[in-house]
């Protein structure tokens, strides 16, 4: 229950700062990460949270999302398990595709089409 309240509070605060200043403060993300790690249920849970943080940090090097978004995602991942983090990633990818389609120019639509073609027909993912 406490984890859920902290997760919702972190998300609402990050949304507020993002809308007002277009930036998510470092203190909010890093304090949420520290609290989430402190509230780990067991050592195994702590290790999985650390693995998830390293995975998301490695993912942020592709620069597909802003670093503020990645820091928030890392903070959220300390409140949910690894499987929940993967579900968040799938939902975020679908939302980014919908956003790209809604605001698309011809070039961004071609990028999505090429990604889809490569993924479905060639069974590979190429970001570059």
TrEMBL record:
Gene Ontology CC entries for this record: membrane
Prepilin type IV endopeptidase peptidase domain segment(s): 5-101
Stored Gene3D superfamilies: 1.20.120.1220
Annotated GO MF terms: aspartic-type endopeptidase activity
Statement: the UniProt record of this protein carries the keyword Transmembrane: yes
Pfam families documented for this protein: Peptidase_A24 (PF01478)
Tagged with keyword Transport: no
Spans traversing the lipid bilayer: 24-39, 46-65, 85-102
Keywords, alphabetical: Membrane, Transmembrane, Transmembrane helix
Domain of life of the native organism: Bacteria
Protein name: Prepilin peptidase
Species annotation: Anaerobutyricum hallii
